[in-house]
Amino acid sequence: MPASAHPYAGQRIGLATIHGKDRAAAPPFRRLLGAQIVVAPEVDTDSLGTFSGEIERNAPLVETCLLKAEMAFQTLDGIDCALASEGSYGPIDRVPLNPSGVEIMVFLDRRRGVRVVETLGTHRTTWRLWRFKAGDPAVPKALKALRFPTHGVFVIASSDSNHPVKDLASVDAVVTAIDREARRSDDGEALLIADMRAHKNPTRMQVLRALSWKLARRLQCLCPKCRAPGFGPVESRRGLPCEGCGAPTHWIHFEVDGCSSCGHAVARPRKDGKRTAPRLSCVACRDRA
To answer: Where are the beta strands (DSSP E) in the chain?
Structure first.
């Protein structure tokens, strides 16, 4: 479907951001849907939680996105649709030296009753955390690993997370901040952490751009019953039959595409074409062995 014929063609879609996320979302929404992303004015998305830690995020990612979308509805006149995103980054529990992240993007259409949530996990991140004492000569090397200064950093006193030092522009400024925050910290250490705010982290912005394309492509798909945008995957059903005895297994049997507006749903087979699961995945076959 050409963008000019899409239901959202020519429409304004609100986005609550203070970190330039419109740079990631605007191109795919314009090219695929013919829609215009409009940044909500005078919103404070940091009030819902910050990467630097001085304001804790109390709600889960999806709920935080919904709160951000509501900010757009409240501050922009004449819009029926809003978009919001939230991300979480850090070490993998079982592989602490390999940080990863997840981005979530929520789209709401209040007039049609459409709610679409898309997620994107990634290992492509600059997130790191180091501890330094005052005068540590390893700081410049750590900054290089963080891709500073093209990627931002935070400096935080280890015993006081309420006063992060942000928007540092030079190696000397970072070193000075680390020395100062380490000396005032109870344990004599300062934290050096990657700044994951989108406008300070080009690598994260790339992930947001990929997720924006994913969401826009999803919204291209119209429900075959009511023609509302966003028809697509809603759940997976397990129970693929065992190749030996035919009993259901924990393997996914089929996927379900659905519409959040009218509830219409359609089952579709696995993408890999598998119709049976291996015997090793079957509890019944293992019990008989």
So the answer is: 12-15, 36-39, 81-91, 99-109, 114-122, 129-132, 153-157, 160-165, 190-194, 232-238, 252-258, 265-269
- CA–CA distance, 40 with 73 (Å, rounded to integer): 8
Can you tell me the distance from the alpha carbon of 37 to that of 42, in angstroms, rounded to the nearest whole number?
Answer: 16
d(C-alpha 222, C-alpha 41), whole Å: 31
Count CB-CB contacts under 10 A for residue 16.
27
What torsion, rounded to 10 degrees, do the Cα atoms 155, 158, 160, 166 define?
10
Contact between 244 and 285 under an 8 Å Cβ cutoff? The reply is: yes
List the one residue out of 228, 226, 239 whose CA is nearest residue 267: 239
- Asked if 231 and 170 count as a contact pair (C-beta separation under 8 A), the reply is no
CB-based contacts of 268: which residues, under 8 Å, 6+ apart?
A: 254, 255, 256, 257
Q: Shortest CA distance to 239 belongs to which of 259, 256, 258, 264?
A: 256
Cis peptide bond upstream of 149, omega within 30: yes
Cβ pair 176, 149 in contact under 8 A: no
Both tokens of 69, joined, read: 């979308």
Query: Would you state the pLDDT for residue 289?
Result: 61
Domains, the chain, with CATH or none? 3-125+201-220 (3.90.950), 129-194 (3.30.1490), 232-288 (no CATH)
Question: What does the pLDDT look like over 80-128, one tens digit per residue?
Answer: 999 999 999 988 655 556 889 999 999 999 999 999 999 999 999 999 9
Q: What is the pLDDT of residues 179-214, one digit of tens each?
A: 999 999 999 999 999 999 999 999 999 999 999 999
Helix 202-220 × helix 22-33 angle, to 10°: 30
